[in-house]
Amino acid sequence: MAAVDDTMTEADAPTIIEVSPDDARRVQTPTEPNAQDGRKSDKLLKVRGLSTHFFTPDGVVQAVDDVSFELGYGETLGLVGESGCGKSVTALSIARLVPDPPGRIVSGEIEFDGIDVLKLDSDEMRHLRGKEIGFIFQDPLTSLNPTLTIGYQIAESIRQHMGLSRDAARDRVAELLGKVGIPRAKDRLNDYPHQFSGGMRQRVMIAIALSCDPKLILADEPTTALDVTIQAQILELIQRLSDEFHTAVLLITHDLGIAAGMCDRVNVMYAGRIVETGTVDELFESPRMPYAWGLLDSLPRLDDIRGDRLRTIEGLPPLLIQPPDACRFEPRCRFARDKCREDEPDLTPRAEPGHLARCWATEPGGWIP
Amino acid sequence: MATQVAVQGQVAQRTRASAGLWSDAWSRLRKNKLALLGLILVIALLLLAIIGPFITPYSFSAQDLAGVRANRNQPLDPLQTAHILGTDQLGRDLLSRLMDGARISVSVAFVVQLVILAIGVPIGALAGWFGGRLDNLLMRFTDIVYAFPDLLFIIILTVAFRETFVGQAMDGLLLVFVAIGVTSWVTVARLVRGQLLSLKETEFVEAARAIGVSDRKIVTKHLLPNGIGPIIVAVTLGIPGAILAESVLAYIGIGVQPPRASWGSLIAEGQKWIRSEEHLVLFPAIAIALALISFTFLGDGLRDALDPKLKGKQ
Amino acid sequence: MISYLTRRILWIVPVLFAVTVITFFLMHSVPGGPWDREKRLPAATVKRLNAEYGLDRPLYVQYVDWATKFVTGDLGPSYRYQDRRVNDIVAEGLPITVQLGVMAFILAVLVGIPLGVIAALGHNRWPDYLSTFLSIIGIATPSFVLAILLIVFFGVQLGWFPTGGWKGPQYWVLPTVALAGFPIAVIARYTRASMLEVTRKDYIRTAHSKGLGNQAVVSRHMIRNALIPVVTILGPTLAFLVTGSFIIERIFNIPGIGQNYLNSIATRDYSLLMAMTVLYAFAVAFLNVVVDVLYAYIDPRIRYS
Fold it and tell me: Beta strand pairing status for A265-270 and A273-279?
């Protein structure tokens, strides 16, 4: 009944970059915090003690619980963890897009470019969204409005924030579409999302996110819904454009390989909390939290000669309704001792100053050296 | 949104891990105040219909002629005499007549749905299971039935067969049941077909097929139990329509035969007195409204409880 | 699209054929005939009349005869009103019935959709409760009850509107409202449910993430998507209005064609009944095609082939 006019395939995409394993481990040098134009703070984003809870009929779900981190201008930060660990809610909280009800930011502070986000009224917040903070969501199939043309949907935020006329906005939309690698962009402005393939739709989402030159892009699992071959293209595109526009990226993913390839720093989240944070090197070379080991272990590896099967972490994350005052990973941890059941560890420094972990066992004096 | 759903889904999954489909649905239904209200009203209506005639001091056809004569041949008002809701012009107790009307409505509510199931389930199941030409034929057939203006067809049927044996049976009610039933089974047939079509492709059915379970067994043992939820919902939501259709028939005077009176015929009678004795219209109207509301609430609640995915759709 | 439409419209023909055959044979096979009167006519007269109108021929011959004339636009003589043609009766009453139906439809859409939108936007607050309450009342009140209540209150007690007849705009008000009550409630319920569903969609989150104001999100992104499922019930709603108007016409004594339906069944006025049946069946089938077209227009994903 619904004939999809999908004339474009991924093969039309102009840029296909193979991400080699070397590339994937590449570490960017973080941008030095200098006095560049428009910088109102030493860091672009400071999140302190953020807690976002969902008030459901079954109880209060503490989806994000006392999360703190910082993100520098132009930097790419990974937020890594299993589904349901609170990483998406963290991103939504930053743009105050948590659906309310049932969700609510119950405490904490979010400072974006020197602005206290949680104190803004809804008009000021709207000015931030789309203009300063762009969003790329997981599923480009459902994240675009099926009844509006993509040209309209991209132009919408441009017209909202830049006050451009319909025609001027149209030119910019065509230019943006070209930038994100959509061929014959001008001809496709009047097409509807269903006439695009998944990868092309995600390019459209990226165009929307970048449309007003934002300082930050929140990319929530931007490639999870896409074919593996297209994932690399989209990631490369995000990386290239964020470099070009000097845009910081908060990249949310459950895929450590992606985080390793894209990010400067990585936060590992588990059960609503950050359990380890450090540079990509620190985390990948010497993870200091059994959960991170588990995550690294469950990556498929080319050098795994035995190659028998993928290792997984046994068990499920805890329910986030009234979590106990104990290490939240303890029930699944092979190294757990009584101490882990009695008290929750804090996020404390390890060998490098920026490398923190939340684990009794790897703290100085712990039972894992 | 995805996140919210994930969070709640996680909770739901855990707390309900051990609960089965039905206890699960029941626990959801219990939390739905409107659905509970509907359920209570439905039960009250059922009780009224079953025991009502035994507890009223008057028969629905007994005439209190003396009372009416004392009232200058006017219907008695509510609460003025022993007739709590008053009487009609012939001195018949309105409350007793309403209770008998409840009997009619309840029997319409359930018997019509039985007729619908008896026709719709086999047709839908045959079409869905065998597919192909048979499916095409049966679905074209449902198209035709669907194109009938149903209320008008019900009227034709009732008028046409009124003088026959079927038309006389059960004070004329049997004919009403059948007439409403044969015009309303299409929804159920389509639903059953759709359920079968989607379930047919699922793994447990393929597995059953692979180990050589017969077609008939797969349908009765695997598919019907799994597809029964939406059918229950459709049946429940079909009840108000049937009650409404019966009341329209009765109102235009071609349903149940006198001296029995359904709520619709009570309204038609009461309408003659509308300028002075509003209660003769008002109470039957309230009765119809309550019956329709209660089944609608219950049906909505069942739909939400049995299939949360369908929430808000019909 | 065109070929799809053609097929859909062509499909109406066999449907009408089936509907007319069933109605024709059903009506002719039941006892009684158009000549039944309070006082029984002499058998010879009945025989003569039957011969005159061709009612003594085999049924299938009569059907073929009826169908041939129907195709040429001749609906035959009325058996009841013996000096009138069915064409004239239909031509007289149809515009009134259509007008009533269309007015009620417009009212239902204009009230029902905003009511549903308001309910959804004020979800779980007083606008929602008020709107939900109104739609429950609407769904639980049969149109004939609503009609009577309107007559009692606005006609008799307040005396604002006439209680019967069809002589000018003030006569239109009560019947239109009475007829629209139920569809208003149904449309409002659907719209509300559909809006709430859309609220949770990812693309609404995307719209918010662009920094659009609430009003823009609702008007540009939510309503159109929310209306897609609502359109599907507009067909049945229109059909309900067209076929359900007879009871309203009867109560308000409106000279539309709806009243003829009941009368023609009761008096075995075969040709009038057949005309009415075809008209109604065609209306239902055709309106469903119209809704399909509307559906494709509002939802760009749907392109019929």
Answer: antiparallel
Query: A147 and C202 in contact by Cβ < 8 A?
Result: no
pLDDT at A289 over 90: no
Q: What angle do CA C271, C277, C282 make, to 5 degrees?
A: 130
Give the neighbor-by-neighbor strand order of the sheet with A133-136. Answer: A133-136, A216-220, A248-253, A76-80, A265-270, A273-279, A356-357, A348-349
Using DSSP's 3-state secondary structure scheme, residue B105 falls into helix
The answer to whether A76 and A236 have CB atoms below 8 angstroms apart is no
The one-letter amino acid at B168: Q
Which pair of tokens denotes residue A185?
Answer: 């962009």
HSE of A265 in the Cβ direction (CA atoms, 13 Å)?
20
Q: Are C210 and A129 inside 8 Å of each other by CB? A: yes
Under DSSP, is residue A75 helix (H, G, I), strand (E, B) or coil?
coil
Give exposure, A131-162, as e/b (b: 16+ Cβ within 10 Å): bbbbbbbbbbbbbbbbbbbbbbbbbbbbbbbe
Q: Are B108 and B242 in contact (CB under 8 A)?
A: yes
Q: What is the pLDDT of residue B17?
A: 39
Exposed/middle/buried for residue A323 (C-beta within 10 Å: 0-12, 13-18, 19+): middle
In the block, tokens 């003396």 appear at: B66
- CA distance linking residue A231 with residue A212, whole number of Å: 24
Distance CA B174, CA B33 (A): 35
- Please count the other Cβ atoms lying within 10 Å of the Cβ belonging to residue A81: 28
CB atoms within 10 A of CB B32: 18
In tens digits, chain C (305 residues) has pLDDT values of: 677 788 878 888 888 888 888 888 887 877 777 777 666 777 777 787 777 777 777 888 888 888 888 888 887 777 777 778 888 888 888 889 889 999 999 999 999 999 999 888 887 778 888 888 888 888 888 888 888 888 888 887 888 988 888 888 888 999 999 999 989 998 998 888 888 888 888 888 888 888 888 888 888 888 888 888 888 788 778 877 877 788 898 888 888 888 887 778 777 788 888 888 888 888 878 887 887 787 777 777 766 55
Interface contact C303, partner A, CB < 8 A: yes
Q: Which residues of A touch C302 (CB under 8 A)?
A: 1-2
Tell me, what's the pLDDT at B72?
Answer: 67
Q: How far apart are CA A6 and CA B121, in angstroms?
A: 39
CA angle, residues C157, C162, C166, in degrees to nearest 5? 160
Token pair listed for A37: 């134009």
Q: Which residues of A touch C200 (CB under 8 A)?
A: 99
Compute the nearest-CA separation of A133 from chain B (Å): 19
* Phi, psi values for residue C85, rounded to 5°: -95, 150
CB atoms within 10 A of CB B30: 13
Taking the whole predicted model, whether its pTM rises above 0.90 is answered as: no
Token reading at A319: 């329910």
Question: What digits encode the pLDDT tens for the residues C46-82?
Answer: 787 777 777 777 888 888 888 888 888 887 777 777 7
Smallest Cβ distance to A138: which of B2, B7, B10? B2
Structure tokens at C6: 């053609």
Identity at B291, one-letter amino acid code: A
A187 Cβ contact partners less than 8 Å away, ≥ 6 residues apart:
none
pLDDT tens-place string over residues B169-219: 777 788 888 888 888 888 888 888 887 777 777 766 777 777 777 777 776
Backbone φ and ψ for B48, nearest 5 degrees, come out as -60, -45
Q: Give B219's DSSP letter.
A: I
Alpha-carbon distance of C278 to B103, in angstroms, equals 36
